[in-house]
Each structure stands twice: as C-alpha cells, then as structure tokens.
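User: I'm curious whether this sequence folds into something compact or stays loose and floppy. Could you predict its structure so I can see for myself?
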Amino acid sequence: MAIRLSGTKLIFVLAGLGVVGGLVSAVISAQKQAPQPPAFEPASNPYAEGIFANGIIESDQPHGSNVNIYPEVSGIVTQVLVHSGQLVKRGDALMQIDDRVQRATTEQLEAQAQAAKAMLEELRAQPRPESLLVSEAQLAAAEASAKLARDTYEKQQHAYDADPHAVSRDALDTARNTWLLAEANRVTAQRNLELTRAGAWIYDIRNQDATYQSLVKSALSARTLLSKYTLRAPIDGTVLAINVYDGNYVSPQGAYNTYTQANTDPPIVFGASPKTLNVRCYVDEILIPRLATAKDIKAQMFVRGTKGSVPIDFVRIEPYVTPKISLSDERQERVDLRVLPVIFRFKVSEGQPVYPGQLVDVYIGK
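Assistant: Here's the prediction. I'll summarize afterward.
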C-alpha cells in the first residue's frame, strides 16, 4: 500500500533530514586533524643578539658579484663555444658572432696599407737604375746633337766669313738656330738627369708615409674591432649561465629574451672558481647600529630547504647604504628603505647543493 504524505508533512520530513545532516557535518568538522610536518625546519637565531639579513649567493669575485658578459658589437651568434658549468681560462673563446662583413673590411684596409707601403718603398728607392740609364742616354744624344749643330754652324760661319756669297744669310741663320735649339735640348736633358738622380721629392715621400701610417692605423682599428666579435673569458673561472644559442641576435644591450621580448639578458654570466662562493647580505638600516665591528663579526648561513647551517667568513662591508631592492631584481618599492651590503665567503663542500643566484637566510652575530 503506497504511503502518501501531505505537503505539510513532507516539509517537516525534509527539515528533519536537514537538521540531521547539519549535526553530522558539525561532528565531522569538530574533529581535529593532525597538522602536516613542515617541509624543513625554519632557521632559528643561533646568536643571543644576532640580526637577520637576506642573502644571495654569488661567485667569489673581488667586487663580490657575478660578471655579466655583454658583446661590444651587434650581430647573429654563429657558435657558442662553451657550456654551462664549464671551467675556462682567461682569454678562452666563449661565443662567436657573425664577422664576415667586418673581416672583409679589415682585409681590404690591410691590403690598402700594403699597397701604400709598396708605393712608399718605391719612392724611397728612387732613382730607379733603369730610369737613370735612360736619362744618361738622352743626355748623351742631346750632347751629340748639340755638337753636330754647333760644328755645322761654325763651318758655315767660316765659309761666310771667307766669302759672303758662298753661304746665304738664310742658311747661316738656320744653322745658328738649329745649334741653339740643340743646345737647349742638351740643357733640358742635363736637368732631367739631375732630377732623376735626385730621386723622389721629400714632400712626396712624407705625404705617402702619412698615407701609409693612416691606413695602418685604420687596419689595426678594424682588426681590433674584428676581435670583439669573439667573446672571451675575462678571467679564469666558470660559465654560470648561457642565455644565447646559435642563431640568436645579440647586442651591447643584451640577448633577446623570448618571454620578455626585450634585449636585457646578459648573453653569458661568468663567475670565479666554484670552490669558494660569496654571500651578499643586505642589513636593514635600522639594524646597522647593532652590527658588530668588522673583527668581531660572525655569521651563519641557512640554505632554504635544508636543516643545517653553514658558517661563513666575513670579507668586508661595502660602506655605502643603498636603496633596498628585492633580490628578484624587482625595483618597485613602496617606501624608501635602505640597506648596508655585507659580504661573506665560504668554501663549498662536496655534495653541498648551493649555487650562485640562490637565496639564503643569514644571521649575523658577534
């Protein structure tokens, strides 16, 4: 037999079920669950009067920071010659940029300098023996012609003196003019021989020498610029990061970043030997009075995600309080907080998972 409930009774039944459900939910939520254990123990202050500072691990450089290597020229990367983590020596090639145009320009200027040098040597070597022989032969021919013309004139003059009717006045004048012309040619040949023997004019030599020196310097400048298409290691150290690959465009402003779409990333980040690392700490300005003197400073570094601490040695205080920036390089700050950079150093033990760029917690005591 089917049971039929009126509307009022149905409402009372549903209300009762709701009350029962609420009571069950209350009982379940009232039960306390055991808290999850922390992923790692938070760093605790190991000093009675220690102060806390954020720190970032850097390579052990004299100036306490990594070296961002930028090219001085722009172009397409044709070859990356190293890999991240590689140890290199000072002067080793790190990256090659397309240098075909600059190489052709350099070779052209060097060829022009060689041509100018050859011309300068030619001027300094004058007179050329063959040119001297030609000038001497021309003088000998001119002297012979002048002697022949003079002898002809003298014979006709004697004949005219003996008998004015033997030689016409016209013939005598022609013979005399021929002799004078031949004599002028002889003088010209004599002067030409002297000019040949004198060699190149000193002003021509100086001008050519200046041209040669100018081209040499231009070629040297082009060769120096060509060398900048190969990025080299500034010191012995380690390649920490490579932000470019074959085919990327680089410029003095940096490498193109696909995600930010800006040329801001350093193509190569370079550091010193990985055996020792630095920790750069930023002490808040309100805590500076509590900082111990340099000889009494002690500090411990806590690597996030690990339980132990690492003692670090004081290196120096950079005595300039600077505006605070977040270590992620986000330079937007709501207030003008200032911090004092303090540099520490520690030796990397085998198997210790620390790398340049890693954030750490530091407690500084005395």
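Summary: The chain has a mean pLDDT of 86. The two ends are 90 Å apart (CA to CA).
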